[in-house]
Amino acid sequence: MSNTLVRVVATADNHLNRFYDRMSPQKLNQRRKYLRDGFKAAVDHALSWQAHFFLIAGDLFDQPDPRNIDRNFVATQLGRLKEADVRVYAVGGNHDTPRQSTDQGGAAPQEVYHRLQALTFFDSSDEITDEVVEVNGLRVAVGGLSPHPNWPGGSDPLANLSWQPEADLGIFLLHGQVEGYSLLDNVAPVFRLHSLEALSRADLIVVGDIHRPAMRRLGERLLVIPGATERMTFGEDPEVPGFVSVELGQEGIISYNRIQLLGQPRAELHLRAAELDQTNLFADLVEQITSVSTLETMVKVYLEGLIDRDRYHNLQLRQLHEVINTKAFHFTLDTSGLMLEDERHESAQRGVRLSQQEELRRLAAELSSQDQADAEEQRLIKQALQAILSNY
Length: 392
What we know:
Blueprint: E1 6-11, H1 25-48, E2 53-57, H2 68-83, E3 87-91, H3 110-115, E4 120-122, E5 129-135, E6 138-144, E7 169-175, E8 177-178, E9 190-191, H4 193-197, E10 204-208, E11 214-218, E12 221-225, E13 242-249, E14 252-260, E15 266-272, H5 281-290, E16 298-307, H6 309-314, H7 317-324, E17 330-340, E18 352-353, H8 356-369, H9 375-389
């Protein structure tokens, strides 16, 4: 490798310690290991590639108070990087930055590693902070700005800021939405492209928060959105898991590459009630779902269409959960697309959306109204209903 190069590995949105509803403690621990493996893959690459810089563009953790197992894991990975003389720089994210001073004393979990000199943490959200170091005879400035929970929605946090370090190369870290890449329903602050391009001393701009990766030139600068190191939710593209490597030289960006990771397997199915085998709805559901399931696969099924009450009960959804959960890592069923056909079998436009909660309430009411149900049985039925609904 030429000693005139500066090698950088950039990651973001690792979301370590993320919580998932309706996942058993054992499965949750296994799921969280996938998240740790994504971050570790970026560290492994930095070490094998002999990187000079390792950048974390926010949301290293999913909360400002991660569990000790994840804190310890990060400490181990940062120790590996420090031992190899890889400099680590980080900004906070909207998930792991405390929203108020009473939350964790206002301190982000990254500050512990900063105090121990395992990384440099740019925690300010009011002004740009930076550090200038020398690598292979080049003065490299690394700066950053962490997000603030009180930044107004739609505002550009860079609008009134400038960065003019005295250095040969500039690397800048941010966390937030970017104009042209933000979510359609975004109400958060947005970094405008002209503000990013105005960072004239930055050769490389790395922005976390957006899970789908992207890279583009802004004049002489390279904008890198590394993407998440694991798919966090269903609906995210298979290309999401990964991180980015960049080579810089005296004249700026030389090359860049996105290293894609496999992540935990996922499968999504959209099944219409009318297209299922009407002679055995349950068996058909099981067959179709198990065809895409493995013990490591997270599976989500969307049931859609018009259905009458009898056929709905023949779906045996509770038993379906029990069966599929033995065939898949985790099973999620979305019935919000099912429409209950009324008793006159009117058109789908006159159907009513089916809710498992409403079905439970209806069944409880039927049981309570039966002649043989005494006061004690009615009390137990009500208590059972409340316990079940508390899990929705």
